[in-house]
Amino acid sequence: MKLQPVKPGAAPALGDEVADVTQEAGDAEVRKHIAKIGERMDELQTALYAEGKQALLIVLQARDGAGKDSTIRRVFGRLNPVGCMVTSFKVPTALELRHDFLWRVHQAVPPKGTIGVFNRSHYEDVLVVRVHQLVPEKVWRARYDQINAFEHLLTQNGVTILKFFLHISKDEQKERLRERLDDPAKQWKFNAADLGERDKWDEYTHAYTDVLRLTSTPEAPWYVVPADKKLPRDAMIAEVVVEALERMDPRFPGPPEGLEEFRRLLS
Amino acid sequence: MKLQPVKPGAAPALGDEVADVTQEAGDAEVRKHIAKIGERMDELQTALYAEGKQALLIVLQARDGAGKDSTIRRVFGRLNPVGCMVTSFKVPTALELRHDFLWRVHQAVPPKGTIGVFNRSHYEDVLVVRVHQLVPEKVWRARYDQINAFEHLLTQNGVTILKFFLHISKDEQKERLRERLDDPAKQWKFNAADLGERDKWDEYTHAYTDVLRLTSTPEAPWYVVPADKKLPRDAMIAEVVVEALERMDPRFPGPPEGLEEFRRLLS
User: Can you give the pTM of this predicted structure?
Assistant: First the structure.
């Protein structure tokens, strides 16, 4: 399945039934496919870094257990870490709360030549903040426009933006949270607060629907990724990223001025 | 060959002859060996991240063309990017120059649970700065002690430090700079200023010798890595890193309090 961007103004269905896809080939074959896309991604990243004129920003949002961390590891772990930076946005610090909600986000925007991955993002300020009523409605309602203006600023200044919502079903989340409890190597990921968030499933669905409806733009599109199955999830995201990099079409700079003279000096 | 830390106060020979080692096995075998160490590194990084109590800081210094970028890609590119951040220190900005030389470095120290790689570092302030006399001798002479005190602060606060000097011979550097000129995918890496640095080969050798002599400590040791051959270089560095992580012995936190209650809630 090939992911399509959410049409501006559209409110895609976010029911359990769209969290799953049919995996089109065996695991080994899908893994090989992902590895092949990964190689191309790597080539394109090298050119992007060499060119130094554009950046790529990838935003990952999801409910707990939907696989943000594992996506980062499996898709973006293939890139050269010199040119790829992951920023994980946690509960804002006291200092961050004394600034507007985009202040800390702006600082983490990837510089030219690099790829930046946001593990959660400014969208939490219209998700958890909205669901838990951490600010008055008037304040979070105004944020959709503020976000669009901010992302417009970035795209006008050489940053390509891709936003992924990893969408899992309520049953799959239960499965994964239980896995965390049962596996000593995963227990550290379990957070009692996740159960409270799970109780607010529908409120989050509603908040995500508004995010998609109000902030998917042609220049900074959202993709809803069916994420109940991990391999197709990785493949679909990797494909969108590589296609975006192909469109960005980064080029190696030409030879340095004075090439022949340098050759002579090094002969 | 197993790398040994530079003994505090010792001034190891940095001639061309120690830039090369005999590769002890065929390329395929060494690659397999590196991949195996890489897997172990990955496991240990996961535990380090889960534990969240210690950090690992890796400092890479070298002459141009010695392979800092390629080491990062080939050794640290195996890690989960969520818990690994590379910081490349360039010529200081106007703002950075208005602060002490450790100011920008301190900000890039890896937080607990993560691995940080410095691509160049505060050591440039006693290398390029010394060779080009960018500050009076009195100023850079005082920096060795300042650096030791700074690194002592870090190690006392949960940061393990490993410092690698990738050592290449003058001929190998010539070879690699020529390669950059000849390969359209590498020309962007060529910097005319590198030729001027090459002319100051002996001055840099002298400055590096002082760095090793004055700042290799039991808590923040330097390793001189023979770097004329790439595969042995990667293997030697990966081995030191994994051994350090083994000594740090990160542990997964135990099960969350209330485990049985959470299991019940998710049944």
Answer: 0.93
